[in-house]
Amino acid sequence: MDKKKIVIVSMGHLACDINSGALPAILPFLITEYGFGYKAAAGLMFAYSFLSSVIQPVFGYISDKMSRPWFMLVGVLLAGGGLASIGFLHGYWSIFFMVALSGIGAALFHPEGARFANKVSGQSKGTGMSLFSIGGNGGFVLGPLVAVFAVQHFGMTGTTIFGFISLVVSGILFYQIAHFARARITSVQDGASGETPAEESNDWKEFSKLTLAIISRSVLFMGMNTFIPLYWINVFGQSKAVGASALTVFCTVGIISNIIGGMLSDRFGYLRVIRGSFILLVPCIALFGFVQSPVLAMLLLLPLAFTLYAPFSSIVVLGQKYLAKNIGFASGVTLGLATSMGGMVAPLLGWIADHYGLPAAFQSMTLAAVLGVTAVHLLRSLPASRA
Asked: Which residue stretches of the chain are H helix?
């Protein structure tokens, strides 16, 4: 495993996904500033997610056909620049458009970044993908903190900080692009000389089952990230800062859980980690909507974070193994759907919250968890040659 290369691409992952983490924390400020409803706020999550879900597999397919390391550089710039601009806009649809542009940036970065991380992880792909994911998860953790601090102290124009972060990190990536390109070519050549035909085959049937589990997880993941701050503010009567802190706790525990899950997958197998996590997820999400105490709710966030984050690296690597000939495309689907399909369902959850309350929105997510459990138990284990 080449940890230096993984750290560099993980830094880019952080600069890309810090915008994803910041957006839910910015939503309460947009609601206060412009009088948006829950449905309108959830629609901005949809704006970030929709184009990403459509385009990201396409970018992944392109990265399978030809080297495009500059996708990572441009992706970071668009993701940060799009979010930075919303602090200077006042119309809903102009904000909607720029948030969507930020989502396109995420679509550019993730397939190429995950494909690169896969190549330099060697035999410890679960651990390697977890290290790559630290950047993305770290972005989700830092995003709410940076957003709340910047907006509270500088107003809505405080979102400029995300543009600054993207410029700095893209500058670092710019000087590393040549090294990335050479590393990719070398790793592809080395991998091609040592792989067997069995390792290079695609299993679309199993990958389609895995995709159902990804959609289930993404609905839960985006639902939690969108509504956790609003839950603490509007149900428990806490401040915006406390709401952002609850999301930070959720994401921080998630980072630790992701690392643990990656290590467990290298030891016990990807499918076991995925199945065990999804089984535990159902009772956790079912209970959350009925909790009346903010303290108990905060405690329940711990197992929820573990069950949602622990299988993430295993899902990505398993998808790459099912589509061994199209690792970039598999990364585009697994990483793209993980942050996009859930965003497409977010407006529906917002409608439920508007009409029946936020607890009902969380309770309805239990259906997605049940779908995920069913999907992962239909998956077959990898052949010995590919495992």
From this structure: 3-34, 38-65, 70-85, 92-120, 125-154, 160-194, 204-234, 240-268, 270-288, 294-309, 312-322, 327-356, 358-364, 366-377
Residue type, 116: F
CATH number at residue 319: 1.20.1250.20
Helix axes 312-322, 204-234, angle to 10 degrees: 160
Domain that holds residue 122: 3-377
Domain assignment present for residue 258? The answer is: yes
Angle between helices 204-234 and 240-268 (to 10 degrees): 150
pTM beyond cutoff 0.85: no
φ/ψ of residue 202, rounded to 5: -110, 135
In this structure, what DSSP letter does residue 90 have? -
Largest Cα span, the chain: 61
Residue 386 confidence (pLDDT): 55
pLDDT over 60 (residue 136):
yes
Count structural domains, the chain.
1
